[in-house]
Amino acid sequence: MSNIKGKYLCFFLFFFFYSSAFSQDKISWSPDKVVTIEDFQSSTTKIGDVAINSLQLGATIDFGMKMTAAEFMFTKNFNNKVSAYLTPTSSSLLASDETLAQHFIDFANYQFDLCELYARKLRKTLFEMKKMGSSIQFIQNHFDSMMMAYHNELTLAMQQTHMGENKEVLKMIHEKVQEEILALEEFCKECNPPKKK
Questions:
Q1: How many other β-carbons are positioned within 10 Å of the β-carbon of residue 183?
Q2: CA-CA distance, 152 to 167, in Å (whole number)?
Q3: How many CA atoms lie within 13 A of 91 on its CB side?
Q4: Mind listing the pLDDT tens digit for each residue in 55-104?
Q5: Is residue 133 packed enough to be buried (19+ CB in 10 Å), middle (13-18) or exposed (0-12)?
Q6: How many beta carbons lie within 10 A of that of residue 184, not counting itself?
């Protein structure tokens, strides 16, 4: 998404894999992880004397699965197959000064939490909707739908907060996302949601 108020560029990275070919420098989401300037390891990262301000957080929701057709048929819980992580070497920050850089970093923390929220929503959807006769396309369809919703919410947040410059609005929507993450605690990556009675 480019030119929010004509001032910023922001890029989003979404990947969907059915293999284990993941980046080695990825950082999995955790409730204690705070995104810092050190997480923007792209060679393009720079603060001061920049031609344009931009934020690119390599935050990804990923589905990685290796199982036979029979295993897939009888699997209900896909929590550990859905990951939310960021890749520092794919993350870039360009800001005209330290203040703007901090706004971007604050927004990046919101974005990473939003990434986990939609990962949990996907885990919940797969758990509730998967039937014994579901095909692999079932996962692709729900993944695509969830990514569209994630992208829409992220784009709206960019506009509402002016990429983190509106600290009050960012704080409000970030707290809402954190509350939603807690409400879906049964759908953390390591969790086993209870079976319906």
A1: 11
A2: 20
A3: 25
A4: 999 999 998 877 677 777 778 888 999 999 999 999 999 999 999 999 99
A5: exposed
A6: 17
User: Which letter does DSSP use for residue 66 in this model?
Assistant: -
How far is residue 60's CA from residue 29's CA, in Å, rounded to a whole number? 10
According to DSSP H, which parts of 60-97 are helical? 69-74
> How far from the centroid of its chain's Cα atoms is residue 6's Cα?
25
Strand partners, 86: 27, 59
CA atoms within 13 A on the CB side of 69: 3
Q: Please say whether the beta carbons of 90 and 47 come within 8 A.
A: no
14, 29, 68, 112 from 32: Cα distances, Å: 23, 8, 35, 12
> Residue 9 pairs with which residues in a beta bridge?
2, 54
DSSP class of residue 42 equals: S
Structure tokens at 60: 């990804």
Place of tokens 């301000």: 53
Does the predicted model carry a pTM greater than 0.90?
no
Round to whole Å and give the CA distance between 155 and 124.
Answer: 23
